[in-house]
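User: New here, any thoughts?
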Amino acid sequence: MLELALNARRGAFRLELACRLAASWTVVFGPSGAGKSTLLRLLAGLDRESARDGNVRVIHDENVITDSYTNTWLAPGRRKTALVAQQPALFPHLSVRSNVAFGIAHLPRGEREERVHQMLELVGGLELVDRHPRGLSGGEAQRVALARALATGPKLLLLDEPFSALDGTAADALLDRLHAWVKAHGVQAIQATHDATDAFIIGAEVVLLHEGRLAAQGPAEIVLAPERTRLLGWLSTQT
C-alpha cells in the first residue's frame, strides 16, 4: 500500500498529490505533461531535489519498508522499489545475462543464475540471454529491462510506458503474465501510461492526473468511461 502526500516542482511544472493506493495494480493515466513520469520518479526516490515537502510511505505486511526520499530505496541488495522506464537504459558492455543479474550480485551464483532464468522466461526473453544490447530490438530491450527490475525482488514495481516498443498482441500477452506474477508474489505495481487499454485488460484501479493534480481515482470502468466511449467510437470507424 502507498500513502502519498507530494508537493514537488520541476521547472514551471508542479505536482501536488495526496491519495492512498491499495490495489495490487494501479494505472496512472493522463495526457503528456500531466505528471505521470514525474510521479514515478519521485516514488522511485529520484528527483528528490524537486520535492519541496511531502511524504511517501510504502507499507508491506503492515510494516513501513520505505519512507520519503531515503537512499535505502536504491541501496544495493536492499532495494524494495524498481523502476522500468520507457527507455531501457541497459548496460551496453554487458550481456543480457549480466544486465539482468546486475542488481543481484550479492546472491550465490546458482541462485543468481536461476533468478535470471526465471525472469527472462517470464518476459519471454530466454533466447536473448547471451546477446548484447546493441543487437536487441526496442521490444527485446524493454523485455530485458523488465526482467532486470523483477530480478531484484521489489515490493513496489514502477512501470513507465514499459510496453511501448511491443506490438499490441505481444504487449497484451506480457501484461497478462506480469499481472499474474505481481499478484502471486505480493508486489504492488504502478503503471504510467497514455493507453487506456492496459487498464481495461487487467481491471486496474486508475489514478487520473491532469496538470499535476488528481482528477479522479477509482476502477477503470468508471474513471475511464469517457475514454472507453472514445475508443469504441474509433473502432467503429475502422470496420
